[in-house]
Specification:
Length: 296
């Protein structure tokens, strides 16, 4: 009796009997998949082939969900024209770099020999995605993870009132390198430029969208104050029907004479801007300063 029956089986199996298994997940993921949110909704349920997806940049802003057929060419066309995606990645040049990237990010594959007892001990070769141990250790962050990390760095900076230069401190760089050698801190210029601008535009969009959805309308309120460096600040606030306040604009008026004509001009500009955005206005509230009172 042969003590190694499996070896005889393997040697006697012809190449025609070895059939590769189909990819378990249907269509393989394209390299733009990291910038979208996939769904289980088929374009045509009668022919379950293509599925819908959403743009990740639009989805994060809670915009009206625009369905995209999850094909690389169609996703690419959407991202190319999506202003929110452009802000997310840091400009038109970055968008072009991403979209012109070739399909070189396919997952590494390896051949695995399966012993299939349910099919008369026949052998099959299947391609499976390799899960290296590096996947579970310190690794290079994905596009979404890097964007979230940069947002958190900006929040820390603003909350603590730090200078943007803190990210270039050698001890800070060494600490983050110790946490994850693949984690890249943004530079001072990136933090004060691209990242701050994108966060400001995102926050501005949320404010506009929330005010526009208030069916009962908003009140506009002005308030003046001095900051820690003695700058005279004029703040305009939207008061929603539920009592929530949204900071609309902040202007440095240190060099102004604060005549009522100046206040009237600012008020008219804000009213025009809000009307263009189709936000319902119910009234204006100011403090008791003479210039504000005269402008009313």
């Amino acid at each position: 009796m042969n003590p190694f029956p499996a070896m005889i089986l393997a040697s006697s199996t012809t190449s025609s009997q070895i059939k590769p298994k189909k990819h378990a997940g249907g269509k393989r993921k394209h390299y733009l998949t990291k910038y979208i949110i996939t769904t289980d909704e088929y374009v045509n349920p009668q022919k379950p082939n293509d599925k819908y997806c959403y743009c990740l940049a639009c989805y994060e802003l809670n915009l009206e969900k625009v369905k995209i057929v999850n094909r690389k060419k169609l996703v690419r066309n959407h991202l190319k024209n999506c202003i929110y995606f452009m802000h997310k990645v840091g400009g038109k040049e970055q968008v072009n770099n991403i979209l012109n990237k070739e399909d070189s990010e396919e997952s590494s594959k390896k051949l695995r020999l399966d012993y299939d007892k349910d099919k008369d001990n026949s052998l099959a070769i299947s391609k499976v995605e390799s899960k290296k141990i590096d996947h579970f250790l310190a690794r290079t962050p994905t596009f979404l993870e890097q964007a979230q990390f940069e947002d958190q760095i900006l929040n820390i900076t603003i909350t603590n009132g730090w200078s943007f230069r803190w990210v270039e401190d050698k001890s800070v760089i060494a600490y983050y390198h110790w946490l994850n050698p693949h984690l890249k801190l943004p530079s001072r210029k990136q933090l004060a430029g691209r990242i701050l601008k994108a966060a400001s535009e995102t926050n501005r969009f949320h404010i506009q969208n929330k005010a526009r959805k208030d069916l009962y309308g908003v009140m506009i309120a002005f308030d003046g104050w001095k900051n820690v460096i003695n700058q005279e600040i004029l703040e305009s606030v939207l008061i929603m029907s539920n009592g929530e306040t949204l900071v609309w604009n902040i202007i440095d008026i240190s060099g102004w004479r604060k005549k009522y004509e100046d206040i009237m001009e600012i008020t008219e500009e804000i009213f025009e801007e809000i009307n263009v955005l189709e936000i319902k206005i119910n009234g204006l509230v100011t403090d008791s300063d003479a210039a504000y009172a005269a402008s009313r």
